[in-house]
Amino acid sequence: MADEKDIIHMTLKDGVVKMETRPDLAPKHVAQIKQLISEGHYDGVVFHRVIDGFMAQTGDVKFGNSDSKEFDLRRAGMGGSDMPDLTQEFSSVPHERGTLSMARSSDPDSANSQFFICFEQASFLDRQYTVFGKVIEGM
Question: What is the pTM of this model?
Fold first, then answer.
């Protein structure tokens, strides 16, 4: 069982999604996500990219926050936080159903606040995106 400090609860319109973070795999990414959560940056952020059978992406705290004056659904997915981008922390953990992984540009060291949840296995992403946890309830 995971330590409670490594559990994140994300409240959606249809219920709560419980996610276990993996600081052993991606300590910098988990720390940044937790800091952004503690500062309320994810409150009101939309899922801006959902591809059936693949993944759902969220975390644009700049343009994707429906509670912010900068909210712009056309630009959601193009922004991040004011925190620095992170150096990749790739691992051998596979991208399978429920995997939490960081979104990034073509630069492997560009992850910031956006992340995605895999709906199904996506092995073509393995060792190319930083896995930082998994959904343990509410998938």
Answer: 0.94
Residue keyed to tokens 């060792």: 127
- List, in order, residues 6 or more apart from 98 with CB less than 8 Å away: 117, 118, 134, 135, 136, 139
Model confidence over 57-109: pLDDT tens digits? Answer: 999 999 999 988 999 988 999 999 999 999 999 999 999 999 999 999 999 99
Distance CA 23, CA 96 (A): 18
Write down the residue that tokens 């620095």 correspond to: 84
In order, the DSSP letters of the chain are ---GGGEEEEEETTEEEEEEE-TTT-HHHHHHHHHHHHTTTTTTB---EEETTTEEEE--TTTSBTTSTT--TTTTTS---SSPPB-----S----TTEEEE---SSTT-B-S-EEEESS--GGGTTTS-EEEEEEE--
